[in-house]
Amino acid sequence: MNAAVIGFGLGFFVALQLGPMSLFLIRSTLRSGWKVGVAIGAGIAVIDGLYAAAGAGGATPLLTIHPVRLGLGLAGAIVLVWLGARTLYSALRVRVGGETPFEVATPRRAFLTALGGTASNPSTIVSWGAIFAAATSAGLVHTTGAAILLVAGVAIGSLTWVSLLATGVALAGRSMSRRAIRVTDGVAAAGLIGFGGVLAYTTLVAPAGIEPARTV
Q1: Which of 6, 117, 162, 171 has its CA 20 to 30 A from that of 155?
Q2: d(Cα 7, Cα 152) in Å, to the nearest integer?
């Protein structure tokens, strides 16, 4: 089977997992529209592609270095908790149209936030490193060209799913009340803070060489 097709499937189904950045995408699409949701999805897909390339290049062993893993893990936890706290603040606001300019995301700001939120989770590299190790063992990545096609497929597959998610949420959001959107904010906030707490805990307690599960 073509390496690009396999990569597409991997990117699509890995992105299908509900994680903190998926929650952030859903919440932001409801608040700020389809363009912002797609921008967040693009940020997720870019990092998935880059980390897939890092996994193919054998960068995963770097995360067995304790200070590297600790620094990246805690940075990721802080980003997720910050996003959750900001979302919770938004959920508690009751004045229609009372958002501040900072709360009303632009596509550019949303894209940069998604880049930071996805990139700061070291388990993303570990996940793609494991996937590429399995693909290599299965004989799917036997040339440089095949590896490039697989990585490109991963990025496109990830982007396809997050774009579909943003589109579905944007369509559903047209019929949602302001109250329902605030409730969604609250759920997303709890999820983001929860994921951040789990990432911080697993980063601090995991022995060197053992990585927390993917939470993006």
Answers
A1: 171
A2: 7
Residue 156 has a pLDDT of: 94
Phi, psi of 30 (to 5 degrees): -65, -40
Contact 49, 158 (CB under 8 A): yes
Angle in degrees, CA 193, 119, 170, rounded to 5:
65
pLDDT in tens, 54-104: 777 765 565 566 676 677 677 777 877 877 787 777 666 644 444 444 444
Closest CA to 53 of 21, 11, 99: 11
Assigned domain for 171 exists: yes
CB 105 within 8 A of CB 203: no
Give the total number of structural domains in the chain: 1
Residue 199 lies in a domain: yes
Euclidean distance between the first and the last CA atom of the chain, given in angstroms as a whole number = 28
Q: What is the pTM of this model?
A: 0.74
Given a contact cutoff of 8 angstroms between Cβ atoms, the answer to whether 155 and 49 are in contact is yes
144 is in which domain, residue-wise? 3-205
Record the tokens describing residue 142, joined without a space: 């036997």
